[in-house]
Write a structure and sequence with these properties.
single chain; four-stranded mixed β-sheet
Length: 257
Amino acid sequence: MESTKRRYQPLMAVDILHHSFLDEGGKIFDGTQDLPAPRKAQKLKTYDVREWLLVEPDTSTRKALQAHGVLLKQTKTGFLLLAQLADALPGTRKPLANLEKMVLGFWLKWQLPELAAQTALAYRVKADGGRGVYLFGNQWARIFGGAYPHLTLPLPTYRPEEDYLPGDLVRKDAKHYRAIAKSKGAAVTDAAFWQPTDSKISYASRQSLQTQQAAVPLDVWGKIEISGKSGLSNYSLLTGTGDLKNSQVYKLHLDKM
């Protein structure tokens, strides 16, 4: 019997970088005052997202992955998608799936529930008493000209009339700040309520919090959606001829409390 060898190519990868594990002293991983390259390499050797985070496809995504030859692999730094290639002309990398019509969704669940208190994510309660869910995705690349590797929106501008909770992050005068206490009207320079954080990194923030999200599993705090739509420029999944690009790498930074 003739055997057929399936061909796969990395479709995209997500690096989920939690700064509680990666920062060191006054040095911020990937930040303005970055760690020396050798030290960063050492940090990544011991860093393993799988110890504290579970990534699971939602129901429709699980079916789509199985139907269209896309494999999900959780890695030390996040997760990876591998796309099965169609039988086509030699040298082409046509995906078996019609990726432009796919939106893949992945639930994020804590493996270590206590880590939630060490993460700069503020949760707001919906009108029905439920908790909002953070929604991240590559759709922001379209908004920001296609040269934007992050799965989050830029931090919101500080507004003194807003109510802020511990874990909220804001920007003011090109600087970034993290709320450490509940406040309204407290200046970002007031150390009793705010701490400066790195201004180079686009951390996850309330900009990505969806309070109108449909019902989700109780133990879910976030979701990543990856769209195959064209028009994302550098961060599209496909070339103009419909071939797979070299694996796109998206980043999700979680600030520490």
